[in-house]
Amino acid sequence: MSISLHHIRLAYGPRVLLEEVSAEIPRASLTAFIGRNGTGKSSLLRVIAGLRPAEGGEVRLCGTPVSALNPRQLASTVSFVATDKVRIANLACEDMVALGRAPYTNWFGRMQKSDRAAVRHALETVGIADLARKPMETLSDGECQRAMIARALAQDTPVILLDEPTAFLDLPNRYALASLLRRLAHDEGRCILFSTHDLDIALSLCDSVLLIDTPALHHLPAAEMAASGLIERLFAGAGLSFDPLCGRIRTDEP
C-alpha cells in the first residue's frame, strides 16, 4: 500500500476530530477525501505528508513509517499541493516547477540534464509546456493549478496529496483537472489523494472515497460510497440531502 493509516488520532485543541481510524490506499489509484468543513481534512493531509504529527497512531508511506523518513527521503516519497496560489512576480512557470527537483539537486541547487528533462516532462504531462516562460502572476487559476501539479510531478514521488485543487475553478476546469489526476494515477502508477467538496467528481472519476464523519473515517470504492448512505447521513440535519444518482447535494427547503 502507498498510504497506510494505523489507529490515527487527530485533535484540534480539546476537540477530537478522528479517533483510532485506519485506512489503506493502494498505488495507481485516485482517491477523493470528503467531509464537512472543519472536520480535519486539511489536517489529516498534513499528517500524511509529514508536516505535522498526529496525536496518536502511525502513518506509513510505501511501507515505511513517516516518522522514520529523514527530510530528503520524505521529499522523494510524498509531494503536497496546498490551497495557496503561487503568484510570485517575475517567477517563470518552469522555474517554479523546477523547485520540485530540490530533493535531487546538489548542495548548490544546480540543475543537471536529468533535472531539466524531468521539468520538461512534467510541463508536457499537464499540458502547459507552452507556458514555460510565462510569469506565474499572469497565469489563470486553472493554469496555476496545473503548474502546481507539474511541480509535484517533477518532484517524482509515488504519493501526491492535494488540498482542494479544484476550489477556485469553474466546472469544466474542475472536471479537466480531476481527469488529469485520474490519468496520472492510472498511467504513471501514482497514489493520489485530494480533498474536495465536488461530490459529483469524487463519485464519477475517483477509484475510492475517504469520508470523515467525526470521529470516524470511512474508505470505500466510489460506487459503494454512493450507495452506502454515509454521505446522506453526513449532511442530514443541515437542511441538505444527497442525490446518489447525480452525486449532488440538494437543499431540502422548498
Report the principal-axis shape.
Answer: globular
Q: In total, how many beta strands? A: 12
Give me the number of helical elements. 9
Which residues sit in consecutive blocks of at least 5 with pLDDT less than 50? none
Report the structural category: alpha/beta
* Main sheet attributes: strand count, strand direction, barrel closure: 6 strands, mixed
CATH level-four homologous superfamily name of the largest domain: P-loop containing nucleotide triphosphate hydrolases
User: Strand order, biggest sheet?
Assistant: 6-7-8-3-9-10
Helix and strand pattern? EEEHEEHEHHHEHEHEEHHEE
When the domains are counted, the total is 2
Second CATH tier, the architecture of the largest domain:
3-Layer(aba) Sandwich
Gap between N and C termini: 46 Å
DSSP strand content = 25-35%
Percentage of residues assigned to helices: 25-40%
Mean pLDDT: 91
CATH C-level name of the largest domain: Alpha Beta
Please state the CA-atom Rg, rounded to the nearest Å. 18 Å
CATH topology heading of the largest domain: Rossmann fold
Describe the structure.
- It is a single chain.
- The protein has nine helices and twelve strands.
- By secondary structure, it is of the alpha/beta class.
- The protein folds into two domains: 1-77 and 158-254, Rossmann fold (3-Layer(aba) Sandwich), CATH 3.40.50.300; 84-156, no CATH class.
- A six-stranded mixed β-sheet has the order 6-7-8-3-9-10, with helices on both faces.
- Strand 4 (56-61) and strand 5 form a beta hairpin.
- Helix 4 (113-125) crosses helix 5 and helix 7 (199-205) packs across helix 8.
- The longest helix is centred in the last third of the chain and has 18 residues, at 171-188.
- 39% of the residues are buried.
- The model has no long low-confidence stretch (mean pLDDT 91).
